[in-house]
Amino acid sequence: MTIEEIIEYVTGLGGVLAQQPTEGSDAPEIAWGDTFFYYAPDGVVPAGQPFATIVTKDYPGDDTSRLDRPGSFRVNVAVSKATFVEAAAPTDASIEDTVVAHPLYAAANWLAVVDPGSATEDTVRVMLREAHDRARARFDRRAGE
Q: Closest Cα to residue 53, out of 107, 124, 122?
């Protein structure tokens, strides 16, 4: 899977705001080039965390995925506790095309995949759909629907 394929898939789920900070934006420089997905059918970034992200570089204190390798990226997805327990495997976070507990946000049920490929493509799509559905349900609850 490429970054573009993931962005196309997630935005195709509907109601998604994909933020992609670039140089000159209000976002911190460290976020430039990364993608943050929110369920925001009104186009307004909601309070709280995105439901999924794509990061293209190591962040301070988050370098175990070794995103310093040319072309590497990591997709991060907030899933349910049940999905997290079922999918997360205690393994080296730098291994490509493997679902792992997020190196920093595992306690919040985030899963991660470095350079998703044929072994994880279907699983990544299922996780992204679940995260989108959960974010939509949160949005609807807050809107009183």
A: 124
